[in-house]
Write a structure and sequence with these properties.
The chain is an alpha+beta fold and 186 residues long. The protein is built from 5 helices and 8 strands. The protein has helices spanning 22-30, 46-56, 107-122, 138-146, 175-185, and strands spanning 4-7, 10-16, 63-69, 75-83, 91-97, 128-133, 150-161, 164-174.
Length: 186
């Protein structure tokens, strides 16, 4: 299940969470030093991370978390997808590059592209992929666009970050659009 892509120079692979990754996930769940100003301040404890891994290995019909690995195989981030609406098969996606020093170097774009490809290649029922980002988060907006998603509009007060509801810039891509993009790339 290694979905790979490159962003001009960057190559990443996605892989499932392994038990050996739990110390890193526990550190990330409780720490704030790696979080950007746009990420949730929600913290999780060691027990909740271990419980989720024991329950489903971070992989269920409801949601999946995959780790982003760089060219050497080192874990540099994570991506996730979950059911966007209870009445459809649309998936909402998210991405994070853990080390702030690695942000802005193409890894986020490569990870988002790999996740979009992974979902459309492996889940026939998925017709739509979307994401919501803070309108002020120009880096994530560019990542969404570079991953092939189109700006669709603004949802008011949809994201809860650091104690406040903020608007969400909505981006989306449909399977036919993704197929057309891939055909043009060949």
């Amino acid at each position: 299940m290694n979905a790979s892509t490159s962003s001009s120079v960057r190559k990443v692979s996605l892989r499932p969470v392994h038990e050996a990754d739990l110390p890193l996930l526990i550190q990330l769940a409780g720490g704030t030093e790696w979080r950007s100003e746009f990420e949730s301040g929600r913290m999780s404890g060691e027990q909740s991370v271990k419980k989720r891994f024991a329950e489903d290995g971070f992989c269920s019909d409801a949601s999946e978390r995959l780790l982003v690995c760089d060219e050497s195989g080192a874990v540099i981030g994570s991506v996730s997808h979950f059911l966007a609406h209870c009445y459809s098969t649309a998936r909402e996606i998210g991405w994070s590059i853990h080390d702030p020093a690695l942000r802005g170097r193409g890894y986020g774009t490569a990870a988002a592209r790999a996740l979009v490809d992974y979902l459309f290649e492996n889940f026939e029922s998925v017709h739509r992929i979307c994401c919501n980002t803070d309108p002020a988060n120009t880096a994530s907006r560019r990542i969404a666009e570079k991953a092939g998603l189109q700006y669709e509009g603004l949802l008011r007060g949809v994201i809860f970050v650091r104690g406040a509801y903020i608007d969400g810039a909505v981006y989306g891509i449909l399977r036919p659009d993704w197929q057309a993009q891939r055909a043009q790339a060949v």
